[in-house]
Amino acid sequence: MSPLSLSQQFPSLTIPLQTYRIVGLYFASSWCPDCSPVTPQLKKFYSKALMLQAGTSEVKKNFEVVYVSSDMNAKQMEEYYKTEHAAWSFVPYSHSDELMAMKRFFQVCAGKEAPGLGMSGPGARLSGIPTLLLLDSENERILSRDGVQDIMRLSVEEALHKWDTTLAL
User: Fold this and answer.
1) Terminal CA-CA length for the chain
2) Which one of 16, 65, 70, 144 is separated from 92 by 20 to 30 angstroms, measured CA to CA?
3) What is the pLDDT of residue 94?
4) CA distances for 14 relative to 90, 104, 130, 143, angstroms
């Protein structure tokens, strides 16, 4: 029996994985002080990446973001998404089972969520928020867990080139 694909496990990832070469899962929340400088930078990064890919004729575009929320409720998530995020994808707050499963699978969550997700032991949680985890959509492998660092210190062109180079490995 073969393992389930990410699209099968997480329906919110189906279209991004089919449409984009690199899918960034952005684990964050409105209440997180560490997310405050990252979200607007990711929004600018995303907008510039869209402009760069607008002229391409490739079947699959380069980059998409999927917001994986750690907000406290649907209203908080929706407000944050509408005011602070770009037009990227998101896992609906109403899909709480999918949100929790995604956090467990990738071992990323806010510290205060860790006990409720069974991720409070040593090695159970690999990262907190904000995290931009990058996926290769072709073989559904993790390219990098360092997307936040990349978007904060590299230009869009440099980051996309770095990620493209990782795809080739």
Assistant:
1) 27
2) 144
3) 92
4) 12, 18, 23, 18
